[in-house]
Amino acid sequence: MITRCTVIVLIATGYVSCNGWKYQDEENWSPLCKEGLHQSPIALDSESAKTKDYGSFNMTNYGRRFTVSIQNNGHSAEIRPDFDGKVPEINGGGLDQTYALDHLHFHWQSEHTIDGFRYPLELHIVHYAKKYSDFKSAKNYPGGVAVVAVLFDLSLDDDMDFQPLVDIIEIVKDQLNAPKAMGNFVIRDFVPRDRAGYFRYQGSLTTPDCNEGVVWTIFTSTIPISKKQVHIFELLRTEDNSMLYRNFRSLQPLNDREVFIRKNPGHRITAGANINKISLCSSVVYLLPSLLFFFRGYINSC
Fold first, then answer.
1. What is the CATH number of the domain that holds 81?
2. Is the dihedral of CA 15, 215, 200, 262 positive or negative?
3. Where is the signal peptide (predicted)?
Protein backbone atom coordinates (compact mmCIF):
# COMPACT_ATOMS: atom_id res chain seq x y z
CA MET A 1 0.00 0.00 0.00
CA ILE A 2 2.84 2.38 0.82
CA THR A 3 4.44 1.64 -2.54
CA ARG A 4 1.24 2.46 -4.41
CA CYS A 5 0.82 5.73 -2.50
CA THR A 6 4.42 6.65 -3.20
CA VAL A 7 3.93 6.10 -6.92
CA ILE A 8 0.82 8.27 -6.89
CA VAL A 9 2.66 11.09 -5.11
CA LEU A 10 5.57 10.92 -7.55
CA ILE A 11 3.27 11.11 -10.53
CA ALA A 12 1.17 13.91 -9.06
CA THR A 13 4.20 16.06 -8.30
CA GLY A 14 5.85 15.51 -11.66
CA TYR A 15 8.88 13.65 -10.34
CA VAL A 16 11.71 13.56 -12.87
CA SER A 17 15.31 12.61 -12.23
CA CYS A 18 18.04 13.06 -14.80
CA ASN A 19 21.65 14.20 -14.54
CA GLY A 20 21.18 15.20 -10.91
CA TRP A 21 18.10 17.41 -11.16
CA LYS A 22 14.38 16.86 -10.76
CA TYR A 23 11.36 18.85 -11.88
CA GLN A 24 9.79 18.48 -8.43
CA ASP A 25 12.91 19.87 -6.76
CA GLU A 26 13.53 23.19 -8.52
CA GLU A 27 14.88 24.72 -5.31
CA ASN A 28 17.97 22.55 -5.69
CA TRP A 29 18.67 23.41 -9.33
CA SER A 30 21.92 25.17 -10.22
CA PRO A 31 22.44 28.69 -8.77
CA LEU A 32 21.53 30.69 -11.89
CA CYS A 33 18.16 28.91 -12.05
CA LYS A 34 17.32 30.33 -8.62
CA GLU A 35 19.13 33.67 -8.72
CA GLY A 36 18.80 34.74 -12.35
CA LEU A 37 16.55 37.72 -13.07
CA HIS A 38 15.72 36.83 -16.68
CA GLN A 39 14.48 33.27 -16.37
CA SER A 40 11.99 31.26 -18.43
CA PRO A 41 9.19 30.30 -18.81
CA ILE A 42 6.91 33.24 -18.04
CA ALA A 43 3.20 34.01 -18.11
CA LEU A 44 2.37 35.76 -21.38
CA ASP A 45 -0.46 38.30 -21.42
CA SER A 46 -1.78 39.48 -24.77
CA GLU A 47 -3.23 42.68 -23.28
CA SER A 48 -0.19 43.92 -21.36
CA ALA A 49 2.40 42.92 -23.98
CA LYS A 50 3.66 45.86 -26.04
CA THR A 51 2.71 45.73 -29.71
CA LYS A 52 5.65 45.71 -32.09
CA ASP A 53 5.80 44.89 -35.79
CA TYR A 54 8.92 42.79 -36.12
CA GLY A 55 8.08 41.59 -39.61
CA SER A 56 7.91 38.04 -40.91
CA PHE A 57 10.40 35.21 -40.43
CA ASN A 58 12.62 33.76 -43.11
CA MET A 59 12.92 30.00 -42.61
CA THR A 60 15.50 28.27 -44.80
CA ASN A 61 15.44 24.48 -45.25
CA TYR A 62 12.43 24.16 -42.94
CA GLY A 63 10.59 22.49 -45.80
CA ARG A 64 13.29 19.91 -46.55
CA ARG A 65 12.86 16.26 -45.66
CA PHE A 66 15.34 15.00 -43.08
CA THR A 67 16.13 11.74 -41.41
CA VAL A 68 16.00 12.40 -37.67
CA SER A 69 16.96 10.57 -34.49
CA ILE A 70 14.24 10.54 -31.84
CA GLN A 71 15.06 9.57 -28.28
CA ASN A 72 13.78 9.62 -24.74
CA ASN A 73 16.62 11.42 -22.96
CA GLY A 74 15.07 10.99 -19.52
CA HIS A 75 13.45 14.41 -19.35
CA SER A 76 11.93 14.93 -22.81
CA ALA A 77 11.33 13.50 -26.26
CA GLU A 78 14.24 14.92 -28.26
CA ILE A 79 14.62 15.16 -32.04
CA ARG A 80 18.00 15.61 -33.74
CA PRO A 81 18.05 15.84 -37.54
CA ASP A 82 20.81 14.50 -39.78
CA PHE A 83 21.35 17.75 -41.67
CA ASP A 84 23.51 16.35 -44.47
CA GLY A 85 24.96 19.81 -45.13
CA LYS A 86 21.54 21.52 -45.32
CA VAL A 87 21.09 23.00 -41.85
CA PRO A 88 17.74 24.78 -41.33
CA GLU A 89 18.19 28.46 -40.52
CA ILE A 90 15.95 31.27 -39.33
CA ASN A 91 16.25 35.06 -39.49
CA GLY A 92 13.97 38.07 -39.82
CA GLY A 93 11.10 38.42 -37.38
CA GLY A 94 13.06 40.93 -35.33
CA LEU A 95 16.08 38.65 -34.93
CA ASP A 96 19.32 40.60 -35.34
CA GLN A 97 21.26 37.67 -36.81
CA THR A 98 20.83 34.28 -38.44
CA TYR A 99 20.34 31.22 -36.26
CA ALA A 100 20.97 27.57 -37.15
CA LEU A 101 18.82 24.71 -35.89
CA ASP A 102 20.29 22.48 -33.18
CA HIS A 103 17.42 20.23 -32.04
CA LEU A 104 13.75 20.02 -31.09
CA HIS A 105 12.15 18.78 -27.87
CA PHE A 106 8.76 18.75 -26.16
CA HIS A 107 7.25 19.75 -22.82
CA TRP A 108 3.95 18.48 -21.51
CA GLN A 109 2.04 20.49 -20.36
CA SER A 110 3.19 23.78 -21.90
CA GLU A 111 5.85 25.76 -20.08
CA HIS A 112 4.55 29.18 -21.15
CA THR A 113 0.99 30.22 -20.49
CA ILE A 114 -1.05 32.67 -22.56
CA ASP A 115 -3.67 34.75 -20.79
CA GLY A 116 -3.62 32.34 -17.86
CA PHE A 117 -4.08 29.20 -19.92
CA ARG A 118 -1.60 26.30 -19.97
CA TYR A 119 -1.68 24.22 -23.16
CA PRO A 120 -1.30 20.42 -23.22
CA LEU A 121 1.98 20.42 -25.18
CA GLU A 122 4.77 22.82 -26.15
CA LEU A 123 7.47 22.25 -28.75
CA HIS A 124 10.82 24.02 -28.50
CA ILE A 125 12.74 24.44 -31.75
CA VAL A 126 16.20 25.33 -30.47
CA HIS A 127 18.64 27.37 -32.59
CA TYR A 128 22.09 28.86 -32.02
CA ALA A 129 23.67 31.96 -33.57
CA LYS A 130 25.72 31.02 -36.65
CA LYS A 131 28.70 33.06 -35.51
CA TYR A 132 29.32 30.40 -32.86
CA SER A 133 30.53 26.89 -33.63
CA ASP A 134 27.67 25.07 -31.92
CA PHE A 135 24.88 25.28 -29.35
CA LYS A 136 27.18 24.37 -26.47
CA SER A 137 29.32 27.44 -27.15
CA ALA A 138 26.48 29.78 -28.10
CA LYS A 139 24.45 29.27 -24.91
CA ASN A 140 27.10 31.10 -22.90
CA TYR A 141 26.58 34.40 -24.73
CA PRO A 142 23.71 36.93 -24.76
CA GLY A 143 21.63 36.37 -27.87
CA GLY A 144 23.53 33.18 -28.62
CA VAL A 145 20.40 31.00 -28.54
CA ALA A 146 16.97 31.54 -30.10
CA VAL A 147 14.08 29.24 -29.22
CA VAL A 148 10.90 29.11 -31.28
CA ALA A 149 8.03 27.72 -29.20
CA VAL A 150 4.95 26.11 -30.71
CA LEU A 151 1.86 25.45 -28.59
CA PHE A 152 -0.58 22.60 -29.20
CA ASP A 153 -4.31 22.80 -28.57
CA LEU A 154 -6.55 19.79 -28.00
CA SER A 155 -8.58 18.39 -30.88
CA LEU A 156 -11.17 15.63 -30.93
CA ASP A 157 -9.27 13.88 -33.72
CA ASP A 158 -5.66 12.74 -34.00
CA ASP A 159 -3.44 15.03 -36.04
CA MET A 160 -2.37 12.70 -38.85
CA ASP A 161 0.71 14.76 -39.78
CA PHE A 162 1.86 14.36 -36.18
CA GLN A 163 1.03 10.66 -35.84
CA PRO A 164 4.24 9.17 -37.40
CA LEU A 165 6.29 11.01 -34.77
CA VAL A 166 3.96 9.86 -31.99
CA ASP A 167 4.36 6.26 -33.19
CA ILE A 168 8.16 6.51 -32.82
CA ILE A 169 7.87 8.15 -29.39
CA GLU A 170 5.68 5.27 -28.28
CA ILE A 171 8.47 2.87 -29.30
CA VAL A 172 11.23 4.72 -27.39
CA LYS A 173 9.16 5.60 -24.31
CA ASP A 174 10.79 2.85 -22.22
CA GLN A 175 14.22 3.05 -23.89
CA LEU A 176 16.43 5.68 -22.29
CA ASN A 177 18.93 7.34 -24.68
CA ALA A 178 18.26 4.80 -27.42
CA PRO A 179 17.71 6.87 -30.60
CA LYS A 180 15.26 5.63 -33.20
CA ALA A 181 15.53 6.83 -36.81
CA MET A 182 12.61 8.38 -38.66
CA GLY A 183 12.65 9.48 -42.29
CA ASN A 184 10.80 12.23 -44.17
CA PHE A 185 10.71 14.58 -41.19
CA VAL A 186 9.74 18.11 -42.27
CA ILE A 187 10.27 20.79 -39.63
CA ARG A 188 7.77 23.12 -41.29
CA ASP A 189 5.03 20.59 -40.50
CA PHE A 190 5.59 21.33 -36.81
CA VAL A 191 5.12 25.09 -36.93
CA PRO A 192 1.73 26.78 -37.42
CA ARG A 193 0.77 27.64 -40.97
CA ASP A 194 -0.19 31.08 -39.71
CA ARG A 195 3.04 32.52 -38.30
CA ALA A 196 2.08 36.18 -38.38
CA GLY A 197 1.44 36.52 -34.64
CA TYR A 198 3.96 35.84 -31.88
CA PHE A 199 5.33 36.95 -28.51
CA ARG A 200 8.97 37.99 -28.05
CA TYR A 201 11.02 38.38 -24.90
CA GLN A 202 14.51 37.79 -23.48
CA GLY A 203 14.76 34.78 -21.19
CA SER A 204 16.67 31.62 -20.43
CA LEU A 205 16.88 27.92 -21.04
CA THR A 206 14.17 26.21 -18.98
CA THR A 207 16.37 23.40 -17.66
CA PRO A 208 19.65 23.52 -15.71
CA ASP A 209 21.93 25.35 -16.01
CA CYS A 210 19.20 27.85 -17.05
CA ASN A 211 21.59 29.97 -19.15
CA GLU A 212 20.19 33.46 -19.78
CA GLY A 213 20.34 35.59 -22.92
CA VAL A 214 17.93 33.37 -24.88
CA VAL A 215 15.72 35.07 -27.48
CA TRP A 216 12.23 33.60 -27.16
CA THR A 217 9.52 33.53 -29.83
CA ILE A 218 6.15 31.97 -28.98
CA PHE A 219 3.62 31.72 -31.80
CA THR A 220 0.05 32.74 -30.96
CA SER A 221 -1.43 30.26 -33.45
CA THR A 222 -1.49 26.62 -32.36
CA ILE A 223 -1.34 23.12 -33.83
CA PRO A 224 -4.07 20.54 -33.05
CA ILE A 225 -3.35 17.36 -31.12
CA SER A 226 -5.60 14.76 -29.53
CA LYS A 227 -5.68 13.66 -25.89
CA LYS A 228 -4.56 10.20 -27.01
CA GLN A 229 -1.49 11.62 -28.72
CA VAL A 230 -0.57 13.73 -25.69
CA HIS A 231 -0.92 10.65 -23.49
CA ILE A 232 1.91 8.92 -25.39
CA PHE A 233 4.31 11.62 -24.18
CA GLU A 234 3.13 11.10 -20.61
CA LEU A 235 4.19 7.44 -20.81
CA LEU A 236 7.91 8.24 -21.21
CA ARG A 237 10.15 6.89 -18.46
CA THR A 238 13.07 8.49 -16.62
CA GLU A 239 16.42 6.94 -15.74
CA ASP A 240 14.97 5.55 -12.49
CA ASN A 241 11.95 4.18 -14.40
CA SER A 242 9.58 6.79 -13.00
CA MET A 243 6.80 7.95 -15.29
CA LEU A 244 7.54 11.30 -16.95
CA TYR A 245 3.98 12.46 -16.38
CA ARG A 246 4.83 16.12 -16.88
CA ASN A 247 8.02 18.02 -17.58
CA PHE A 248 7.43 21.75 -17.37
CA ARG A 249 9.21 24.27 -15.18
CA SER A 250 7.22 26.61 -12.95
CA LEU A 251 6.54 30.13 -14.20
CA GLN A 252 9.29 32.65 -13.44
CA PRO A 253 9.04 36.34 -12.41
CA LEU A 254 9.11 38.87 -15.24
CA ASN A 255 11.17 41.34 -13.17
CA ASP A 256 12.36 44.28 -15.29
CA ARG A 257 11.76 42.68 -18.67
CA GLU A 258 9.40 43.77 -21.41
CA VAL A 259 7.25 41.38 -23.41
CA PHE A 260 6.38 42.27 -26.98
CA ILE A 261 3.72 40.91 -29.28
CA ARG A 262 3.35 41.02 -33.02
CA LYS A 263 -0.39 40.88 -33.44
CA ASN A 264 -2.00 39.05 -36.30
CA PRO A 265 -4.99 41.15 -37.41
CA GLY A 266 -6.69 38.06 -38.82
CA HIS A 267 -6.32 35.96 -35.68
CA ARG A 268 -7.79 36.37 -32.21
CA ILE A 269 -6.13 34.51 -29.34
CA THR A 270 -8.72 32.15 -27.85
CA ALA A 271 -6.69 30.16 -25.37
CA GLY A 272 -8.27 26.85 -24.56
CA ALA A 273 -11.24 27.23 -26.88
CA ASN A 274 -10.83 23.71 -28.20
CA ILE A 275 -10.46 22.36 -24.66
CA ASN A 276 -13.82 23.77 -23.69
CA LYS A 277 -15.48 22.39 -26.81
CA ILE A 278 -14.00 18.95 -26.20
CA SER A 279 -15.04 18.99 -22.56
CA LEU A 280 -18.58 19.96 -23.54
CA CYS A 281 -18.77 17.27 -26.22
CA SER A 282 -17.37 14.67 -23.83
CA SER A 283 -19.95 15.61 -21.21
CA VAL A 284 -22.80 15.34 -23.71
CA VAL A 285 -21.60 11.93 -24.89
CA TYR A 286 -21.22 10.76 -21.30
CA LEU A 287 -24.69 11.94 -20.28
CA LEU A 288 -26.49 10.91 -23.47
CA PRO A 289 -27.49 7.37 -22.31
CA SER A 290 -28.95 8.78 -19.08
CA LEU A 291 -30.83 11.48 -20.95
CA LEU A 292 -32.28 8.97 -23.41
CA PHE A 293 -33.32 6.70 -20.53
CA PHE A 294 -35.00 9.64 -18.77
CA PHE A 295 -36.93 10.82 -21.83
CA ARG A 296 -37.98 7.28 -22.75
CA GLY A 297 -39.41 6.84 -19.25
CA TYR A 298 -41.10 10.22 -19.46
CA ILE A 299 -42.73 9.40 -22.83
CA ASN A 300 -43.92 5.98 -21.61
CA SER A 301 -45.58 7.58 -18.60
CA CYS A 302 -47.60 9.99 -20.74
1. 3.10.200.10
2. negative
3. 1-18
Domain containing 160 equals: 2-289
Task: Tell me, yes or no, whether 302 lies in a domain.
Answer: no
Choosing from 75, 105, 107, 127, the catalytic residue is: 75
| CA-based nearest residue to 18, from 56, 97, 75 | 75
What is the pTM assigned to this prediction?
A: 0.84
Is residue 107 annotated as part of the catalytic site, yes or no?
no
Residue 295 lies in a domain: no
Q: Using CB atoms within 10 Å of the CB of residue 64, give its burial: 0 to 12 exposed, 13 to 18 middle, 19+ buried.
A: middle
Residue 114 lies inside a defined structural domain of this protein: yes
Q: What does the alpha-carbon distance between residue 219 and residue 119 come to, in Å, rounded to a whole number?
A: 13
Q: Which of 7-11, 22-26, 86-90, 158-162 has the lowest mean pLDDT?
A: 7-11
Q: How many domains does the chain have?
A: 1
206-252 pLDDT per residue, tens: 999 999 999 999 999 999 999 999 999 999 998 888 999 999 999 99
